[in-house]
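Purpose: get a first structural picture of the assembly so the mutagenesis plan has something to point at.
Setup: two entries, given in the order below. No constraints added.
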Amino acid sequence: MAIADVKEYTHLTEEEVDQIGRELDAIRTEIEESRGAADAAYINRLIKLQRALAAAGRVTLLVGSQFKETRKPAWVLGASLLGLHKILENMEIGHNVMHGQWDWMNDPEIHSSNWEWDTAQPAEQWKHSHNYIHHQFTNVLGYDNDIGYGILRMAREQKWSPYNLGQPIYNSLLATLFEWGVALHDLDIERIRKGEKDPKEMKRQLKQIFRKGRNQVLKDYVVYPALAGKQWKTVLTANVAANITRNLWSYMIIFCGHFPDGAVHFTEEEIEDETRAEWYLRQILGSANFEGGRTLHILSGSLGYQIEHHIFPDLPSNRYPEISEKVRALAAKYDIPYTTGPLYRQYGQALRTIMKLSLPNSWTKSDQPDPPTPPHDRKRRGDDERPSRRAELGGWSRSSSNARA
Amino acid sequence: MASTIPWERVRRSASKLTTPLHPDDYLRLLNPLWSSRELRGRVEKVIPETEDAATLVIRPGWGWRYDHKPGQYVGIGIQVNGKFQWRSYSVSSPPERRRGTITITVRAMPEGKLSSHLVKGLEPGTIVRLALPEGDFVLPDPPPERMLFLVGGSGVTPVMAMLRTLDRRSREIGRAMPDVVMHYSSPTEDRMIFRDELDRLEEQHDGLTLHRLQTDVDGMLDLAGPDGLDKICPDWRDRETYACGPGPMLDAITEYYEEQDVVDHLHLERFSLELGGEGGEGGTITFQNSGKTIEADGATTVLEAGEEAGVGMPYGCRMGICHTCTLTMISGKVRDLRNGNEFDSPNEPVQTCVTAAVGDCTLDI
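Result (structure tokens, whole complex):
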């Protein structure tokens, strides 16, 4: 059993698969060799803009809230500026910097090893749960904890239980509190529940999350409101609104990455002896893009190019548009499915799957062409049971993370 | 700047407002020098010295202490085509806070893209990164009563910092220039950096004697020959000698001083990596976070091995000076190729550009 048996790929010969791998490698090399001053200027400009938005948002709220006439417009404007700042920071900047997309600049201030982002999840844990587990084991059942984040049932292959009846509720909670859901992600609640988690590691992670979360809460919900004096309520509610806006937005974008129809799940057997070319193929088949203009793509952290992001997670995100033209052409040439659509449709499909899978399989019909599903155990794996990490997923370092967490 | 400490405290408490960033991350958007997260400086002037050398006047930003010792070098990082490249150069200005600037003098090397860029392509106003001053090739305080400087080419820069410091002290606190003999080899007179200033210093100070040699015309200095050290400076064996210049020149000096049994009086500054020590035994180097491994022999530095394996290794000077390349070694043992020192404590920071594996080791990257 190998990926060659996934039916979307059975028309490809082994040589063709290798050839696809080589062609994708060539795209990577071309981008790597052409990285330069314009790319560096892009990320620097974006960081400047994001920090200016943050400063403008804070000042608008602190000053605007002091006068009766300006209070309401300041609330709206301040919350929007802050929400925008957090979205940019988390999506296009933080997420991509932590993938090592900008490490080539040799700039310690924009480097995956020490970037800390403006959200509750400590960067180090993110680099483990996301860069390593999710990106290497994309959509592999039992390996990729991003299939429903241990909360939602997102694949028909996952066993149904009455707990799943509550999915519509869990889903809206997850969307609203997304920042905190992500913060707990690397703890792997499911393994904790089953008593498979190393208690020492758990304690270390909890401490890290606590410290980071406390600083975030203090900043947005205590210090800034306190600075506004009597008008603390205005600032507090605007900050809550900004955080929730960011939560809802990033939740939606992220759910468009692997849950629309057409994004396929895989089994452990299918990734056995996987070659690099097959890993590429799995990334293409397991991810879904969405369409939109340049601004939408930047606000979604370039995750509208989820397929390209998954094949080349460490190439600069501003290059994904040109990469995607090449990848699309390649997919067409070899007749490989390439899932994309407008944002509303992609998210709509993900939402429908959440609703549908709250019910047992026998009550509903699949919207996916069924991938082969041989029997397998559904146990979750720890790091020691997973194959070792691929390099392009970006660094993950335990020691460097304590500094500003 | 007596207010340094309270100001730091203000910034530290302000970080409650900017977490997970530091206030400096915002302040530097107002003025690029208002940040101490990474030392940086602004190039104020580029003064041509000779056809292929220039002095850069740099205004350092926050965090710079102006406490370099005369003779030390600094790392300077310049973004070339989006990427920071690091080199180290001696500071040629004396340590003085009130100047507000430091100067480094750079000679464009025929093969050195970066040095050419520094000499010819750097616009005033450019923001560069800086690394703290380092190096043991320094003028002691108080200085020895009798000194000999042996200088070749751009090796004059650290010595210039020493001479300027001595000159300044003589002017400011009336401490006369000690007895200094300086031999300065340069291919031609035109390529002699600081030649006007040296002339002036020689005129002003009775204690300073200059000996110039144009090696293109007169050939290299033969240390032991009739026109050698015994002639230039008959009491050279009793002096503290500071030598800086190209590798072969320093090798010849070291050899001669050893032969004459006065090597204790010799102080050297090398500007290229000299792998004097023995190699390691080699082994498998594992790069923990990227999951890559590579077999490296005992002559390959950990940095080269990592690059070979495709790991995005940080690096700067590539000769053990700037510490940009330092990584944490989780386990195993490496040997410093310069001197044979071994490092084997778990989680020890190692300079990857000058160390090689002794057996298997694992690095945190």
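Chain B has three domains: 31-134, 146-269, 283-363.
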